[in-house]
Model the fold of this input.
Amino acid sequence: MSVLVPENVSITKHRIGESEVYIMDTSMIDACLLAHHLPALMLNQAMTSFKSQTRQREWLCTRLLLKLIEGDNAIIEYSSNGAPILLNSDKHISISHSGNFVAIALSKQQVGLDVQVINDKPLRLKSRFLSNQELTLLKSDKDVEGAVKLWSAKEAVYKYVSLPGTELIRDIVLEMVDKELMELLRHLHIRFLQHKNLMVVIAEK
Done:
């Protein structure tokens, strides 16, 4: 389902498992639009929190997306582990961004979301996040989509777990040996959806 929001910025909503995922294309969003729809305090917070203009923009576009789907009273804070929390709400939230896209997943249960523009970066970096056993899951040395899926799946699980010190290659593997993580991730479902050139992955019970 697609809707048009201010200045013809497109938001697409997908139902993935128990989660509602909202994806916004930010390519048409400029500083004037952000300044018009977001409070000055939030704009200043982005500038003081991040040196990179790219990170400032991602942070602000995420807040704009949340405002458009949940209203002006929706506020994000972060846990001690760095996981986002939606204040004054019974919904769980997970956030991701890649390229010109920002995405938010909302659910009544714990959820991890990752989005990744489909390109060859995960394939080039495969040895940094895949074990030797997991490398055999790739169809070939040129399996770009397979590498993106594995990367995003691990990132989504990482966000679901939200435990300090968790590493993609060491802790989130095909057959986990860490008993604490095994219990935490028991019956976890990994769900995939492709939106345009974007891989969308949800981790949820």
In short: Strands lie at 2-5, 9-16, 19-25, 76-78, 84-86, 92-98, 101-107, 111-117, 189-195, 198-204. The helical segments are 31-37, 40-49, 53-70, 121-124, 126-129, 132-135, 144-161, 179-184.
